[in-house]
Amino acid sequence: MSKNPQLSPSEKRLPDVPVDLDAIESGTSLWQDAWHRLRKNHMALISFWVLVFMVIFCFVGPFLTSHDFRSNDLEKTLLSPSSQHWFGTDDLGRDQLTRVMIGGRVSLGVGIIATTVSLLIGVTYGATAAYIGGKVDASMMRLVDVLYALPFTIFVILLMTLFERSIVLLFIVIGAVEWLTMARIVRGQVLSIKKQEFVEAAVSLGYSTRRIILRHIIPNVLGVVVVYATLTVPSVMLLESFLSFLGLGVQPPMPSWGSLIKLGADNIQLYPYLLVIPALFFSLTLFSLNFLGDGLRDALDPKSSKD
Amino acid sequence: MAILEVKDLKTYFHTRNGTVRAVDGVSFSVERGETLGIVGESGSGKSVSCYSLMGLIPQPPGRIESGQAILDGKIDLLNSSEKVLRKIRGRRVSMIFQEPMTSLNPYLRVSTQLIEALRMHEKLGRKEALSRAIKSLEEVGITEASTRVHFYPHEFSGGMRQRVMIAMSMITHPEILIADEPTTALDVTVQAQILELIRERQKANNSAVILITHDLGVVAGMCDRINVMYAGKIVESGTADDIFKNAQHPYTIALQRSIPSLGSKGKALYTIPGLPPDLSRPIPGDAFALRQGIKSGGKWANTPPPMRQVSETHWVRESDVILPSLEEVLDVR
Amino acid sequence: MFKFIARRILQSIIVLFVITTVTFFMVHAAPGDPFSAERKMPEHIKQRLMEHYGLDKPEIVQYFHYVGSLLKGDLGPSHVETRSVNRIIGTTFPVSLELGSWALLIALGIGLPVGIIAAVFRNTLADYIPMSMAMIGICLPTFVLGPVLALIFGVWLGWFNVSGWFIPADRVLPALTIGLVYAAIIARITRGGMLEVLNQDFIRTAKAKGVPFPRIIFFHTLKGGLLPVISFLGPALAGIISGSFVVETIFQIPGMGRQFVQSAFNRDYALVMGTVIVYACLIIVANLLVDIVQVILNPRLRFEDS
């Protein structure tokens, strides 16, 4: 009957169509597909380049201006934009262009670092819960639910007012709030992948646990983590700027986009440019991060996209 | 006269990757009290052709390119106004679906869903409609119907839900019932009960039933006539006897061979090699000949094979495909 | 159903207790005291004040004393102002409540219809245009939108006052500032929820029954489609509260949000505690209501419980 009698039953049932099993396993095609889809998404691409511009503007820009963000000049307060000061000067005569750059550096920096912190906590927590499963998982997730129910912004404000405000405290506070969502998402993703057919197939084919984690679970969770990290950065920046707006975030003379907007809001009657310019930079960055995150989500997980 | 006569139905889906010719020139008719089976693999167009009749094709991307479906010699279901059709759907033509778990609205009581058609189509009052609903549940064998009519769908088991679906589709005594894989999602023990129930309700109402399934076993016991579909076209059409005792088209024969029979324990199962063709590319000739692992004489490679009459009731599409034997199929792997 | 509500109320009381305790010790562990905030005062006067408010006693004694009076509904005296905390919150809370209600009304009044229309006319201009605007709305934080609205409609056009809370027109800009952001989010959630339900098999069943299109939308789809919106209302309330901190500061509204931020700056222990407890109650009650409404709307939840 069969020319190759040693074949096991499972191998006999392999599909007729040649399939590149390695490509499915390592997920390379997943990322390639994602890249193809992302390139077609114009909004996401524009957003990407806006962000590149913002990073260069904020991190390289300050070296190119001839002003310092701290040096007051009380004879030149509240000047309108001019060739000397492109964005004008603030209430203490400091160059607004340089301050917007440095403020962006602070906002973006806080966004990236606090996201990393929340990422590390959230991924570890969520993956642990999903991997152990059972009662441990249930109680770990119950804790997340309870923490979710707490009025966090109120606690954040309390912490930032009552204790000595430092940038480290800011990271801790923001990281502590933002890891919850990440933990939930990672747990859900790991659980659903554990149940998926190709993993069950890998298990039944006798692949080792390590191989399954390395080649199936991690590449597939990575996509979701990248997407939500991109979407966490703007929400972290929002929280930081919210605190800075209330005077509870980064402390003067260090600016952040939030505190610059606050200064602008206090002076809208006479000096609208103090509001409009930092608000524009801040909003543009938030838009771009959100659009890029959405684009990445559509690209990496076409099933979950809008419809 | 036939209660429903479908002529040259073509339903295409215009997607970004090309036009999918899901149903490509299908014609059939059903008489009152008759059961017509439509058989084929998934993607053969059997469901799409019936969804087209019910106006359930999402448009876009779907479009009914051509065809007529004349109900009772008067109304064309494919070319009438939405207003006219709404009065037919759920009253004269109704439908049950494959998934009883998701086909009932989980947010509404069964009673609400049962009486909806009566109140809409027959303008009955609440009370009257409710007693009809209870009666219809009793007719499909649900006990304590007067209490359970007020339950939510999740309070019924899968088989019970399919009974509710049948009660709902039969409550207006429709002339035609379209059943789309009504037993596929159910336990084997429940399947026979549901089929029996459909037949019983059909007799009581003298309705025509169109039964869509991929399972030849289901069709064998139920249907008077059978259409076999492949790649959007009917490849063989005839009475149950024609199809089961005198199958002509190689695809029909292959389908029959793949039914696991009792007493075949230990023998390898026959499966049709390859996959159905990609319908987003035009197929000039015999679609079955394009299947991987299938050999053909090549006569119908570039010309569409015509239908040939075998007997008064039996039609078959020409094909020169030579089916591989069971041994050959296993050897290939 | 009643068992479920009773259990949830019990849970809420525990959460409230935890919040009270954590806040109490956090406030007291912080460096500084109510009398070191602004003016320097002689040591013996400060001593007398500390005694007066019982702040010289051990923290644990203060804690039990506080919880004792809290159970009687007394939030204690303010350490900085001469009025009691109950009186202060009694005047600021109604202002914030009004602001929040208007904001919620705007959010739902705009968000729901826009979301439903976008879902029904998916992939047309009626979907693309409002959804792009919603995307912009979501990205605009209150502290950007507020000043910008004030600049355009207050300073440039002169339609509204830039600050204050006196005439009815003063409600417009603050309420819009908070409401529009949530309108955008609710529109997106509504659209998603409606689409999810519209793709379900039972909608196809309804169509096959000949149910007219409007009835499919408003009777068969809406109940399930709005569930995500309902569950969002809990977080939305928390968001509206934090929005009120900013908006009340921008528009100088004498509400609880501004008062909370000020009291924290002033280290007015009793006032901070009182405000946090009121906020916590508000959020807990809202979440409880949301849960109950969800159970009412979704029969499957009811079934699981019993």
Describe the structure.
The complex is a heterotrimer of chains A (307), B (333) and C (306). Chain A is an all-alpha fold and 307 residues long. Chain A contains 13 helices and no strands. Residues 1-27 of chain A have low confidence and may be disordered. Chain B is α/β, with parallel strands linked by helices and 333 residues long. Chain B has eleven helices and 14 strands. In chain B, helix 6 packs parallel to helix 7 (188-205). The radius of gyration of chain B is 21 Å and the shape is globular. Chain C has 306 residues and is mainly α. Chain C has a single domain (85-305), classed as MetI-like fold. Helix content of chain C is 77%, strand content 0%. Chain C is flat and about 85 Å long. The model of chain C has no long low-confidence stretch (mean pLDDT 84). The chains are: A mainly alpha (307), B alpha/beta (333), C mainly alpha (306). The A-C interface holds A 146, 149-155, 157-159, 161-164, 234, 238, 241-242, 245-246, 248, 258, 261-262, 264-265, 268-269, 272, 275-276, 279, 282-283, 286-287, 290-291, 306-307 and C 15, 19, 23, 26-27, 30-32, 122-123, 135-136, 138-141, 143-144, 146-148, 150-151, 154-155, 162, 192, 195, 199, 238, 241-242, 245-246, 249-250, 260-261, 264-265, 267, 272, 276, 279-280, 283-284, 287.
